[in-house]
Amino acid sequence: MSKLGSIGARLYRGEVGYDFIGKRKIWYGISILITITAIVGLAVRGLNFGIEFSGGAVFTTPKTSVSASQAQHQAESAASGHQAVVQKLGSGGLRIQISGLDTKQSLPVQEELAKDLNVPVKDVNTQLVGPSWGEEIANKAWLGLGIFMVLVVLYLAIAFEWRMALAALIALIHDLTITVGVYALVGFEVTPGTVIGLLTILGYSLYDTVVVFDSLKEASKDLTKQNRFTYSEIANRSINGTLVRSINTTVVALLPVAGLLFVGGGVLGAGMLNDISLALFVGLAAGAYSSIFIATPLVADLKNREPQMKALTKRVMTKRAAAAAKGASQEDGQDEASGVAVAGDDDGAAAVVGPRHQPASRNRGRGRPSGKRR
């Protein structure tokens, strides 16, 4: 831990660092590839909407010895091919949800399930969900997402600048697209819990981005008044300075979510936890990636288009080229066999300077206490 803290301090001071901005085209390419894969998965497989959005019936049975896979097969057979999702409850019962069933279809399915599972019909609880309720939830979710996006863009544009607001918006869309695409590829059911998870990750996704932007804003004050660093270099130092903090916060946030997803949903079989935990897990990971590899490099690209930043980059490069040429001239002069050194003046011209000998008059006062001449 102390070693990690030492690395973080050196990153913050700019003593070490990784060139995130210089290799931004690689990160752009990786993000484009992942986003295209998510979009293709969404277009080909589509989303597996739960009955809250598509409508259907939910049957809850008492304790039974029938396994979840057997109950799924029997439920789909009783519902004439309608897709069924079966979850084992802690009490030993089953929760069977079948999409597309209406009131008339649910009664014979209930009787058939009771017969197949060898339980009394009256003990099988039935709940019907209409598709209009799910449509209302979806509309409110889209409305909330739109309001959130507008408020985020306005806040970032006021607190920072419009370029950072635009970069943050692109990063958010990037994170949402990847998360939804993973849902399509994995085939997890989309429920109101999924919507809650998607809305929750937006705040987490912005957290690391705002931290880097705040560091970049402070570091880039009066940037055009100096000739040592370009805007891309300052942006890169801001990423490196907050890198360890971003890693720590992301890991701490991912650990409990991973517990919900892999232990709660996978080991314990609490399938309802998968709805929100998968969205949180993928969204948190994508948000940490986008804040470092997407948002800040986009800001650097947008800022470097400004005339004053172009002029700054030209001045910095010119100064470094002159310094490199001066250093090369000094090294060439020191290699002369005669011991004559070559030095460059302020205009870049080389001047020949011979070995310096101390005049004999400076030694005349030696040996006298006062050192004064008589």
Number of helices: 11
Radius of gyration: 34 Å
Distance between the termini: 70 Å
Instruction: Give the CATH superfamily of the largest domain.
Output: Multidrug efflux transporter AcrB transmembrane domain
Order of SSEs, N→C?
A: HHEHEHEEHEHHEHHHHEE
User: Helices and strands: which structural class?
Assistant: alpha+beta
- The overall average pLDDT, rounded, is 78
Q: What is the topology, as strand order, of the major beta sheet?
A: 3-4-2-5
Inertia-based shape? elongated
Annotated CATH architecture of the largest domain: Up-down Bundle
Helix share, percent? 55-70%
- Uncertain spans: 337-368, 370-374
Approximately what portion of the residues adopt beta-strand conformation?
5-15%
In CATH terms, what is the fold-level topology of the largest domain?
Multidrug efflux transporter AcrB transmembrane fold
Number of DSSP strands?
Answer: 8
Number of domains: 2
Largest sheet: 4 strands, antiparallel
Question: What is the CATH class of the largest domain?
Answer: Mainly Alpha
Quaternary structure of the protein = single chain
